[in-house]
Amino acid sequence: MMKAGKILLLLLCLHVFSYAVISAQPQTCPAENAGECGDSDGWEGEFFPGIPTIKYEGPSSKNHLAFKYYNAEEEILGKKMKDWFRFSVAFWHTFRGTGGDPFGAQTKFWPWEDGTNSLNMAKRRMRANFEFLNKLGTDWWCFHDRDIAPDGKTLEEANANLDEVVALASKLQKENNKKVLWGTAQLFMHPRYMHGAATSSELGVYAYAAAQVKKAMEVTHYLGGENYVFWGGREGYQSLLNTDMERELNHLARFLEAAVAYKKKIGFNGTLLIEPKPQEPTKHQYDWDAATTANFLRKYGLIGDFKLNIECNHATLSGHSCHHDLETARINGLLGNIDANTGDPQVGWDTDQFLTDIGEATMIMLSVIKNGGLAPGGFNFDAKLRRESTDVEDLFIAHIIGMDTMARGLRNAAKLIEDGSLAELVRKRYQSFDGELGAQVEAGKADFETLEKKVREMGEPKVPSAKQELAEMIFQSAL
Ligand code: XLS
Ligand code: NI
Ligand code: NI
Fold it and tell me: Is residue 234 part of a domain?
C-alpha cells in the first residue's frame, strides 16, 4: 500500500502533470521535420462540423448547444453582458489538454490532432481555435508561448517557431475580429525551470526566463493583447533548509522590474497581472494569495505597475473563498482579471473545473460590479474538461455552462443591488460610526484619551445582532 504522503504528493502533481503529458506523449516531432512527422496543415473543412453557432435561447430552452442565461447584447446595470465578462478561451486547456493524469495516459483524441507537436500541427490547432471562438461567440483568447508553438533546441529556434504561429494567429484574428485577453510565458514545464525561473538558484536559468518573457511580451504586444500574466509557475520552494527565501524574492522583484521597463520600452500598454496560487507545483508558492502578493508588490515599490489575476480554484486552495480574494484585490485597487474556474470541495488540488455553482458566481459578480467591471481584463476560462469527458461537443458544453453560470451570477447580483436590502443591512451594521465620534475615528483624529473619556460618558455599549442569517436569506432570494 502506498503511504498517505506519497499519494498526496502524486495528487498534488495532477494539475501540472496534465501539462507535462502534453510534451511527454504524444512524442514531439522536431520542428524542422514538420512536414514529415505528421500530416500537413491541410485540414479540409470545419473542425467542429455539426456544432452550430451558439445562440441565446432563454431559460426554457432544452438545447444543450444554446445559452439559457448569457445574452451577449442584453444590458444589465447599464452595460452589455459581453462587456461585463469579456469571456476568453484558454488555449492550453481547450487545445492542449489531453486528459492525462499521474495514473493514466491521454484520454482525449481530437480528430484534428495528428499525435505530433509539429509546426504544422500548431498551425492547424490555431485554425481550430478561431473556429471554436466563432462558434462559441467569444471575442477573446489567452495563451502561453509554448502552448501555441513547439519549443526549440535553442532560444532562436523556439522564437522562430513562435513567430511563424503568431503570424498565422495575427491573420486569423483580423479575419475573425478576435483579440488576445492575455499572453504569458510557460516557465514551468522545461526541466531547466525545475528550481523556478526568476527565483531559480541558477543565474543562467534566470537569464533564460528573462529572454523567454521578453519574447512572450513582444508577441502579446504584436497580437494586440490587452494584458500580460505572470503566474508563478515554480517560483516557490520545496524546503527552506536549502532555500535563501530573501534572495529569491529579491530576484523575483528585480525580474518584474525589468519586465516593467521592457513593457515601456516596446510601448506595450497592456496591464501586467500577477496570478496568485498557494501551492502546486511547489509546496509553497511565493505569490500565495492576493494579500501576500499585494504585500510583495508594496515592499518592492511595484504596486502601481501590476494588478492581480485572481483564479477561483487558487483562492480556495489558499484557504479563502474566491469572493474573499476578489474583495482583497478590489479594496487594494488590484482587481484586474479573473481566471474563471472552481475546485472540488472534496479534493485539495487545482482541478480547474468549469464553475457551475450559481451562489459562488453571484458572489463573484457582486465584487466585479463593485469594481465597475474588469476591463481591460476579463473572464478567462482557465478550466478543463474532466478526464472522462472525451467528446468534441463537451468542449462547447463546458464553456456554455461556464458562461451561463456567470450570466446567472450577474443577473442575481444585479437583482441584489437593485433591491438594496443587503446594502442597507451592511449600512445599518456600521451606523454607530456615522456620528461625530465615528467620523473622528475614521479621520484618524480620535486619540486614546478621547476614547477613554467617551467610555466614561457612554458606559457599556449596546452591541447589536450581526443579522447573518437574514443576510443569507436576502442573498438566497436572488438566486
Ligand atoms: C496554473 C495557472 C496557469 C496560469 C497561466 O495553475 O492557472 O494556467 O493561469 O500560466
Ligand atoms: Ni489553475
Ligand atoms: Ni490560471
Answer: yes
Q: What is the mean pLDDT of the chain?
A: 93
339 pocket-lining for ligand 1 (C-beta < 6 Å):
yes
**Helix, strand, or coil here: 275?**
strand
Q: Write the CA distances from 54 to 135, 138, 298, 390, integer angstroms.
A: 6, 10, 44, 20
What distance in Å separates the CA atoms of residue 191 and residue 282, rounded to the nearest whole number? 14
Averaged pLDDT, 77-88: 98
What are φ and ψ of residue 275, in 5° steps?
-110, 105
Which ranges of 371-464 would DSSP assign to H, the alpha helix? 392-419, 421-429, 436-442, 448-458
Closest Cα to atom 3 of ligand 1? 231
Cα–Cα distance for residue pair 260/309, rounded to 1 Å = 17
Per-residue pLDDT averaged across 249-258, rounded?
98
- In the DSSP assignment, the letter for residue 301 is T
CA 63 – CA 135 distance, rounded (Å): 15
User: Which ligand has its closest atom nearest to the C-alpha of 145?
Assistant: 1
Tell whether 34 is covered by a domain: no
**H or E stretch covering 337:** strand 335-339
Q: d(Cα 151, Cα 157) in Å, to the nearest integer?
A: 8
Give me the pLDDT at residue 35, please: 42
Ligand 1 atom 5, closest CA: 231
Residue nearest to ligand 1 atom 10, measured at CA: 231
Counted domains in the chain: 2
The answer to the question of residue 334 being in a domain is yes
Q: Is 404 in the pocket of ligand 1 (CB under 6 A)?
A: no
Host H or E run for residue 162:
helix 155-176
Ligand 1 pocket test target in 181, 184, 308, 354 with most atoms within 8 Å of CB:
184
Residue 68's domain comprises 43-419
CA distance 308 to 335: 5
**Residue 282 predicted with pLDDT over 90:** yes
Report the amino acid identity of residue 359: G
Grid coordinates belonging to 135? 462558434
Say whether both 49 and 188 belong to one domain. Answer: yes
For residue 12, pLDDT beyond 80: no
Query: Quick check: 309 and 273 in contact, CB under 8 A?
Result: yes
The three-class DSSP label of residue 258 is helix
Alpha-carbon radius of gyration of the chain: 24
Tell me the three state secondary structure of residue 142: strand
- Same-domain pairing of 347 and 441: no
Question: Nearest Cα to 158, choosing from 218, 212, 91?
Answer: 212
CB 275 within 8 A of CB 231: yes
| C-beta of 382 in contact with ligand 1 (< 6 A) | yes
Instruction: Report the candidate in 81, 86, 98, 75 with the shortest Cα–Cα distance to residue 19.
Output: 98
Of 420, 341, 273, nearest to 88 by C-alpha is 341
- What is the whole-number distance in angstroms between the Cα of residue 53 and the centre of ligand 1? 28
